[in-house]
Amino acid sequence: MSQETTKKHIGIISDETLDLPEEMIKHYDITIVNYKVDYQDMAEIEGNVYQKMRYAESKGLPSLVKTSQPSINDYLKAYKEKLDSYEEIICFTISSKVSGSYNSALQAIKFLQSDLQNKITVVDSEGGTGELGLLILRATKMIEEAKLKLSEINQRLLNEVKNIKLIAFYDKAKWLETSGRIPKFIPMAGMEKLTGIKPLLGLRDGKLTFIGIKRNVKDLAESLSEEFEMRTRKLRDDGKKMIVAITHADNDESASKIKQFIEKMPNTEIAFISQLCIAIGGHSGPGAITISWDEN
Q1: Does residue 49 fall inside a structural domain?
Q2: What is the CATH classification number for the domain harbouring 83?
């Protein structure tokens, strides 16, 4: 029997911003392409990235992390290795509006031999973290349940990207403000000094931006859960089931509270809870919390 006939149908590659739990990544045999991380002055501090940032801040030290997108060579290596086991590949990336990861993934295809180039499709998720994780879970179902062509799966995913949403709170504005990830952030940073006022973050046209203001915020988990309940109420009342992902920057307490809130709502199912990757959480800062949901 030839090697070609023993290959599986379609394999999945993603940059690390998918934020799926490790057990899901292993179960679906997802290859992860990592970002480069520079801890700068925090390199010698013990703990995960969020513990490093908190400690550095408490000591008055610089507490910023620098990240850079995966290179063309990183994707090229992943493609070659994956094609040893799979006939075709879907590669997912964070929104092309916030990172060059998508472009690196596209450019890497050009360095494959010509007969392999059409075996790979790259999907711009127009999101990240829980949004990207939920999109990939939808792709795994398509691969498992229907013997669709790669082009057919790609078209369906492109249509469904718009049905996956995200809302988020940061804990402290300083990290996002300094990272420059949100345009004109500085005028909004003073809001956290006003009692109970918090900007609500979300993704619009693939860009992280302000989508509203929450007043009387005393508990991040409760306020974010209330926002999710309000935004999904009509669909849930109509019988639509929301598939939910919760991601956080070393904030297990808020994640657990949100889980309890959501489990009491009708027509909801929590797909996973996980920690934000460094590529996202290193800019949002410790304590950030997100809710993503699939409206399909």
Answers
A1: no
A2: 3.40.50.10170
What is the amino acid identity at position 77? K
- 137: in domain: yes
* 68 vs 186: CA distance, rounded Å: 23
User: How far apart are the C-alpha atoms of 296 and 139, rounded to whole Å?
Assistant: 13
Burial class (CB in 10 A: 0-12, 13-18, 19+), 218: exposed
Residue 222: exposure state from Cβ atoms within 10 A (0-12, 13-18, ≥19): middle
| pLDDT tens readout for residues 53-96 | 999 999 998 888 899 999 999 999 999 999 999 999 999 999 99
Instruction: Name the 3-class secondary structure at 45.
Output: coil
Kindly report, residue by residue over 120-150, the tens digit of the pLDDT.
999 999 999 999 999 999 999 999 877 788 8
Domain end (from 162, 197, 225): 162
Report how far residue 195's alpha carbon sits from residue 154's, in angstroms, rounded to the nearest whole number. Answer: 46
User: Whole-prediction pTM value?
Assistant: 0.92
Are 72 and 113 in the same domain? yes
CA dihedral defined by 74, 79, 81, 86, rounded to 10 degrees? 160
Same domain, 266 and 189: yes
Domain ends where: 162, 187, 213? Answer: 162
Query: Domain range spanning residue 242?
Result: 163-294
